[in-house]
Amino acid sequence: MIINHEKKLKFYFMKKIREKDYLISVLEDNKKYLVSGTYRVSWTGKRKVYLKNKNTAHFLLKNKLQSNNSFLFKMKSVIDAISASLSTITITNEKEQKLEGELVMMTYSSNVKIIDFTKKIILNRMEAAPLTYERVKQGYQSLNKHFKMTIIEFLDEEFIYYEKYLEFIPYNLWEARDIKDCINEIFNSYIRYFVTIKKGDIPTHNPAALFEEIKATDYKNHKTIIAVEEWLEESPEELLYPIIRGHGDMKFENILLAEKEFYFIDLEFSAAYFFIYDLINLIFNEAMNGDFSYVQAFLEGAYDEKYKKLFEAMGLEYDNKKKLYYIAVYLVDRIIHYDLKVVVHRLDLTDMFNKYFMIMTKIEELDKQV
After folding, report:
1. Which of 5, 147, 312, 359 has the most Cβ atoms closer than 10 angstroms to its Cβ?
2. Where are the domains of the chain?
3. Edge-to-edge strands of the sheet including 271-274?
4. Which helix (H) or strand (E) holds 281?
5. 264 φ, ψ to 5°?
6. Spatial contact of 246 and 280, defined as CB atoms under 8 Å apart
7. CA–CA distance from 67 to each of 60, 61, 174, 181, 285 (Å)?
C-alpha cells in the first residue's frame, strides 16, 4: 500500500512540474486582474497560484479544512511545500488592474477563479468552457430563489460571473449542530423548490429504462453495474421519476457556513437529474471519502420524515423499505451523466467503478444490520 502511494506521489510531482508553462500562460492571460508580485504554486486539490501573504495563507488553510483529510491529501501538501520553492511565477502589472487579485484557482474544467481579498470578490472566467458557464447560469436561475448563493452578477459576452467572497467556517470545524442544520436546510430548500414547480411541466423517466443505456456500454459486465441492476430490482414496478435541474455536485465541500447561514457554491455540474440526485449525492460523496455515518443514518431512517415530505412535494409516495433502490436510481444517473461524460476524460472508469463496488458492498452490510 505504501509503495502504491509512493508511485502515485512521484507521478503527481513530475506531472505538476511539467504544468508550469500552462500556469504561466494562465497568469499572463489574467494579469490585468492581479497584483504584481511573485506567485507560488499549490497543486493540493484544485491548482492554485498565489501571492504569499496573510490573506492567501488564511484562505489556503481554510480551503484545506473544507476538503477531506486523507493520507494522500496530506502527502500532496508536503509535496506542495517542497515544490513551491521550485515553482514561482513573477507577474508585473504596470496598468491599473480591474481587481486586486492575489490568488488564482483553476477548476477541473479549465476555468479560472481569481480572488480579491480586499474587495471580497471572486471573478470566474469561463471562456474555456462556455457550456459550463451556461450550466452555472441556468442552475443559478433555477435554484437561487430557494438556496442561498454567492453569485452576484453574470457577464454573458465575456463568460464571466462574479461572486462575493465570504469568511466561512471550514466544514471540518463544523459542530454537530451545524451539520444537522445544514442537512435540514438542504431538505427544506428542495421542498420549497419542488412546491413551486408545475407538476405537468416536469419531464419524467423510468430509472430501469435509463439503466439500459449503461448496459449498452463496455462496462455492462462490471460487478458494479450488475450490483446496481440487482438494487433496481428492489422495486420491480414501472416507476416514473421527475427530472429536475439540480446542483449536480451537492457535497459539504461545496457548502459554505458564514454568519450562521449556508451558502451553496460550484454549480459547474448543474443539470437535469432525478429529483433525489443531490440528496443521495451528499451522503454517497461522504462514503467516497470513507465516512459512512450519513449513509448509515439514511438506512436507519434518520431522514425518513424529510424524504416523505420531499416525495409528497413531487406527488409521489416514499417507501422507507426501498433505500437501496433509491441509491441505485442515483447511481444510474451519476454513471450516465457524470462518469460516462465527465470522469471518463480524466480517470480510469474501471478504477472508479471498483471503488463504487466497495462502497456498495459496505452499504449492503450496513443495510443488513438495520
Report:
1. 147
2. 2-125, 173-369
3. 204-205, 241-246, 271-274
4. helix 277-288
5. -105, 125
6. no
7. 11, 10, 12, 19, 12
Cell numbers 496573510 correspond to what residue?
54
| Beta-sheet pairing, 88-91 with 37-42 | antiparallel
- Separation between Cα atoms, residue 210 and residue 332, nearest integer Å: 7
The cell for 31 is 494579469
Tens of pLDDT, residue by residue over 61-87, are 888 888 765 444 555 555 555 555 557
What is the DSSP secondary structure assignment for residue 1, as one 8-state letter? Answer: -
Contact 174, 257 (CB under 8 A): yes
Q: Whole-angstrom distance between the N-terminal and C-terminal Cα of the chain? A: 32
What's the per-residue H, E or C state across 53-101?
CHHHHHHHHHHHHHCCCCHHHHHHHHHHHHHHCCCEEEECCCCCCCCCE
**What's the sign of the alpha-carbon dihedral 343, 347, 350, 354?**
negative
Burial class (CB in 10 A: 0-12, 13-18, 19+), 105: buried
Domain 173-369 listed as CATH 3.90.1200:
yes
Could you tell me what percentage of the chain is helix, strand and coil, using 3-state DSSP and rounding each to the nearest 5? 50, 15, 30
Length of the chain (residues): 370
Residue with C-alpha cell 509503495?
Answer: 3
**Pick from 41-45, 78-82, 291-295, 323-327: least confident:** 78-82
pLDDT interval class at 15 (50, 70, 90) = low
* CB-based contact 85:17 (threshold 8 Å): no
- Specify which residues 121 forms β-bridges with: 116, 164
Residue 314: all three cell numbers together: 413531487
The residue type at 159: F
Share of the chain above pLDDT 90, in %: 70
- The four Cα atoms 192, 197, 199, 200 give a dihedral, to 10 degrees, of 180
Q: Which of 8-22, 60-74, 181-195 has the lowest mean pLDDT?
A: 8-22
